[in-house]
Amino acid sequence: MESTIVERLKAGKFVLIAEIGVNYYDIAEEKGISEMDAAKLMIKEAKEAGIHAVKFQTYKAGSLAAKDSPSYWDRTEEPTASQYELFKKFDSFGEKEYRELKEYADELGIEFLSTAFDFESADYLFELMNVYKISSSDLSNIPFIEYQAKKGKPMLLSIGASDLPEIEKAVDTIRSVNDSELVLLHCVLEYPTPLEHANLKKIQTLKQQFPDCYIGYSDHTKPTEEFDVVKVAYNMGAQLIEKHFTLDKTLSGNDHYHAMDPDDARQILKAVERMDMITGQGELSALPSEAAARENARRSIVAAARIDAGDLITRNLLTFKRPGTGISPSELGLVVGRTAACDIPEDTVLQPEMINNFPTGEDGEDEA
Questions:
Q1: Is the pLDDT of residue 367 over 70?
Q2: 18-31: average pLDDT
Q3: Angle, vertex CA 163, rays to CA 232 and CA 223, nearest 5
Q4: Angle 142-146-151 (CA atoms, 0-180°, nearest 5)?
């Protein structure tokens, strides 16, 4: 299966990725189903919502965080105080399970990928996905970035909580071994991200600093009624949006409270489609729908007084009025100083045949 993500990026189309992460554990508990069935249900719901790709997170708590690693999220939303303890709740899936999810996603026709958090998962995920995703938390983990980049696949790199030299070093590391498509995702490592911290202008700065990369946005804000954060991010130049995904935003803990649900995703895709319709293509040319206005709302050179055949046409004999179906005012210099080829009543829209020796060649010169 070809990469939907890459194909859409190359075609200049918007990409929406549902970051399922490990939210399926809570969905399974809520619905009284297995974790695998919950994960598949979320993939199915994402596909039906029109989302282009689903992303999971592949890790083992013991290789990801020390046991005394402190939390960095909103404890009122997720009370677990230790990273290790939180991750331990959600690390039961391995290669077998992710392979099954990949095959299911393929059946539905939605792209599968998962963020690898250790070398082992980076290896076995190679056969399961077309694109590698690097978490913001691993931006400074240069050996790990290089290891995944050497696999030669397109890459998504989140750049939350970083400064320019760190981003440049990560990009240079990737580019030293991998010339495939690279997407840099603006991201704020604050869960949830307050609207005043979204800093979406950073997307424009990234486009300027890294013109050879695609630019996206990994969103951790709570969805608003108008989805204005995503819309502004897209308008700023984020061609790819990654957002956490849930089937129930009221669930406590982990990544439900700042996630989109299927209805949100549908509204986001409709909003982007509407924005594309409004912004258009940008050509400096008149639209076909403007033809009638172009002809009738513009002005022509009009006789301000009667002009008899053979009379010398002077400026004081002319004015400019609608419609624009005659000689354009821009050609005034081609009319003044010539003679009338026929009688021209007052208030007549001048036509080329009314003027002796009026240029008719494409270059504006008299024809021989």
A1: no
A2: 96
A3: 30
A4: 155
The distance of Cα 138 from the centroid of its chain, to the nearest Å, equals: 24
The residue type of 356 is N
Which domains are assigned to the chain? 4-279 (3.20.20.70), 291-354 (3.90.1210.10)
Q: Say which DSSP state 260 is in.
A: B
The H or E element that residue 46 is part of is helix 35-49
Q: What is the pLDDT of residues 313-325, one digit of tens each?
A: 999 999 999 999 9
Distant-in-sequence, close-in-space partners of 74: CB < 8 Å, separation ≥ 6: 191, 192, 257
Sign of the C-alpha dihedral, residues 65, 67, 70, 73?
positive
Q: What is the DSSP letter of 125?
A: G
Task: State the DSSP H helix or E strand holding residue 335, giving kind and residue range, or none if neither.
Answer: helix 332-335
Show Cβ contacts of residue 326 under 8 Å, excluding neighbours closer than 6 positions.
300, 301, 302, 349, 350, 351
pLDDT in tens, 170-226: 999 999 999 999 999 999 999 899 999 999 999 999 999 999 999 999 999 999 999
Phi, psi of 72 (to 5 degrees): -135, 15
Residue 172 one-letter amino acid? D
Token duo for residue 95? 């290669």
CB-CB neighbours of 107 under 10 Å: 12
Residue pLDDT, tens place only, 330-360:
999 999 999 999 999 999 999 999 999 999 8
Query: Residue 348 gets which letter from DSSP?
Result: P
5, two tokens: 């993500």
288 exposed, middle or buried (CB, 10 Å; 0-12, 13-18, 19+)? Answer: exposed
